[in-house]
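Weekly structure sync, notes
Attendees: PL (lead), two postdocs, one rotation student
Agenda item 3: pending single-chain targets
PL asked that the sequence for the first pending target be pasted directly into the notes so everyone works from the same version. It is reproduced below exactly as submitted, 370 residues in total.
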Amino acid sequence: MDDIPGEVLRGVPYGNLKNPPDLRCHKRATFVFSPPMDEQKQIVMSGIRPTGYLHLGSYLGAIRNYVRMQEQYQCFFMVADLHSLTTHPDTSQLKSNVHRVLAENIACGLDPDKVALYCQSHVRQTSELYLYLNMLAYKGELEKTATFKEKVRLSPDNVNAGLLTYPVLQAADILLHRALYVPVGKDQEQHLEMARNFAKRFNHRYGEVFPEPVAFNFSEDLVKVPSLDGLGKMSKSENQMATLYLADEDDMIFKKIKKAPTDQGPTVPNSPRHPYIENLFQLMKLVSSPETYQRFETDYNECTIRYGDLKKQLTADMIAFIGPIREKAKAIMEDETYLKSVMEKGAQKAIQSAEATMKLTRKAIGLEYY
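Predicted structure, written out during the meeting:
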């Protein structure tokens, strides 16, 4: 959920909600379910921290599917500002970062009238459920999470309690809306497994309140957007010159693609492509027309490829792809009145859902004294 993924598990949600499959022994499985047949829309929940800039991988790997989900599911999409405090204690840019994340998501096609697009801190019930779930979380299991170990390695002087209990807060975000479907990347599978464990522990101790959420993606098309240098996938904060951001100006897109490494070109027809050459072709497949992609693939296979021409075409197509999103996001960010209305509308929807869950939660625990 955190940091919109460039790659998500494949699968379409199942319809039999009373008897969800036992997922405890299938952390690495790929789940493929039948579409729900219920008239009532099923619930999807996901979030993104307001740190860094959204990039091409964010859009093609996640947001594009979120736009499709909003037509079929009840969607809660959250800006995880509380999560960001665990690793970014300087909040001087938090407001502008939150506004940018909201603006870019809307510019990509999310409709605030169709989804609950809200800030985590505006839903105070989150903190209440976070507290209750902490009573079900154990120090040993929290210390073993891969993301905690990585954060400790990267920031040994900032090992705070919020960082340790990060998966608990993430579970609270999901369970607060009793969401069944959570689009997550590989690095978040462990956190989702923990959310299922917390739901099971709560239900076992206090009574059935929470469904056990599963990972899924609306589409069967997995998209992992490569970095321009061929050394991994695009990132919000790392290797910025190898990542194409949705806020990049045209000249920056040109510079980044121009700097992408190439080789001397093939000398034998139908030669395998070096990974960083394959990356350029993958990017072209994502933003160019099929005819354009096929033309350059044919040139490569026939050993007549001119990488300068390929980069020029890719730059033009990338600018045509990113430019409209960038300009729309800019316009939205300049309209603080509109952004305020979006946040208020989203919070209202999220709070209504959250309070309904918390009434059930308090009753199940026994926190009703009059």
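Discussion points:
- Confidence is low (pLDDT under 50) at residues 2-39.
- The chain has two domains: 43-223+335-365, 248-332.
Action: rotation student to compare against the earlier draft before next sync.
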